[in-house]
Amino acid sequence: MIKHLNLLLILCLLPMASRADDVRAPYFALNSSESSLDTLPLKASKAKVSISGTIAQVEIRQTYANTGAVPIEATYVFPGSTRSAMHGMEMKIGEKVIVAEIKEREKARRAYELAKVEKKTASLLEQQRPNVFQMQVANILPGDEVEVLLRYSEHIQATDGRYAFVMPTVVGPRYSHGSSAGCSSNQWVANPYLEQGKNTATDFEFTLDLRAGLPLKQVTCTSHRSEVQYLGKQHASLVINSEQDPSCMNRDIIVRYRLADDQISSGVLLHQGQGEGDENFFLVDIEPPARVKPEHITARDYLFVLDISGSMNGFPLQTAQKLFNQLASQLKAEDSFNVLLFAGGSDTLSDTPLAATQANIRRANRYFSAHSRRSSGGTKLVRALQRAVNMPTDVEKSRSIVVVTDGYVDFETDAFDLIRDHRGSANVFCFGIGSAVNRHIVEGIAHVGGGEAFVVTSPSEAAATAQRFKTYLEAPVLTQVKLEARGFDAREIQPKNLPDVFANRPITICGKWQGPAIGELVISGIRGGGERYEQVISIDQSAAEGRHNPALRSLWARERVRELSEYTKLKGDEDRKREAVQEVTNLGLTYSLLTPYTSFVAIDDTPRPIDDPATAVQQASPLPKGVLSKAVVSSHSAPLVKGGSVPEPGSATLLLLSLCTLLMMRVRRCQA
């Protein structure tokens, strides 16, 4: 009997052991009872944003300090904008400033580890995802204060006449199935979180200085309470800090602004290198034509793919249902639709598309409500997408797949690859729901699917967003888009293939140029009504206005990296992958750019008085606003931990096996 019971227990535990060893998961951190250890070393994070025209220059100062009694090594996982070009880092200890070097990722890691062993203070910045970064600072002694300064640039686009600058402040808990993207692993997913509703103790400040270059009509902060200061017709500023709002770090900061008469800043920016052999760069924003409504709109078949996993519980799921109601209510009688719900598994409303009748829409709402009340489990997004692309459609209609999710997964590239493999069968649109969604996957799904991305941060935005979606589908702004350079030696243009334009937003193209700054750039395409469209941009005029925009150097390299590594299918073609990895690495080293294959490392060469190895401490993040504790607990077997550290999953499994062994011994003794 005992023998059989032992065998049964071992068979039950083996899958758990295998899974735990392969997959990391977020977990909760509780306050440490060990007073000698400082478990929250990030004391301050201050962001200074300067926007000039359409270019944002951002500086982030992170201050790490050790108020405990033992040396520590701090690790902090933090978010960034999906379009940021991170191009500089410095570390400051006392009055000493060390400028970080950009190195190949493995070389930077080895240099950091060696410095740590040699008892030197060092910092290492790695990219885990295009919008997720990890900072490590080694050998912070008791009483130390180490400041790390990060610099990045970003290009800001207008959509429907409105500009938006977004700064994420927290990484949401990710569901992982053990895959990896690029050269990074999924180890960063094992990030500690504070309990639901608990604010971080980090002193946070965000300042924005906006010089639009054209008269401003309105500036608003839609995510936080902040009073906008108008310092001139073209100049405004605002401040957000944790002193006024202790919870300000639990959601994206979103600042929107409009120019007078809803103008869009369009034209060419030029940068001319000053030294021999220096490269020249350009960036052009081309205002698209006015939207033309076609006389006859083709009937469409919509497949709504809705995320009801544990992380969507509460406000995100309520918002998703409200958004679905709005989207469904706008379907025309000749349209058809279906619904696929997913979490750990998936389920469909119908085996075949349903006519968009009021009765069927009410049936879909009841179906969504019934299942969402039982929402839980992981986010099997790729399996859901696989099922979606294979579901039957009405061949007489144009299909659109509409994905609604918070994107809290770490296998973004698997989703991109799957959608790319089926591109052409449907346009894919993606709605991100939540206060701090994973914008990388939301934007990436739309990018490779030939659709648009939307982010809804509150239920009040659902109706307006659904209306925008309807407008986009009715008549694309421009298709078959092409760029031609006339008398202007433009080269290495990004992106190489211009996508169809659904939204009323400038078409942005960047590249290098040689020779004199003369000639024209010509954009052409087909308007929504089927007419040919062409717009000519003069280079001569832009050259006369100035040729000093150094940020274009980093922005061009960032776009090239994005095209090579983030949305490009690399699986199954090892030669192509090696070439792409090498080119991304070279871009990172040449343009001093953080990439999946290059990292920043700064080392103070003076050894510190340390007797024992520093204790590793992982900075805990607050849960994003509206995300419940269930999102962490349901991601995996997430233990509550103490002091910001947790036994490794493999160790946890071994501990469980040991407990079972002791239990068996006790049973034997009782029987004896």
From TrEMBL:
The residues forming the signal peptide are 1-20
Q: Where is the VIT domain?
A: 26-154
UniProt cross-references to SMART domains, sorted A to Z: VIT, VWA
Q: Does the entry feature the keyword Methyltransferase, yes or no?
A: no
InterPro entries (UniProt xref): VIT, VWF_A, vWFA_dom_sf
User: Which keywords are on file for this protein?
Assistant: Signal
* Residues in VWFA domain copies: 301-481
Stretches of the chain forming a coiled coil according to its record: none
Question: Which SUPFAM superfamilies does this chain map to?
Answer: vWA-like
According to UniProt, the name of this protein is VWA domain-containing protein
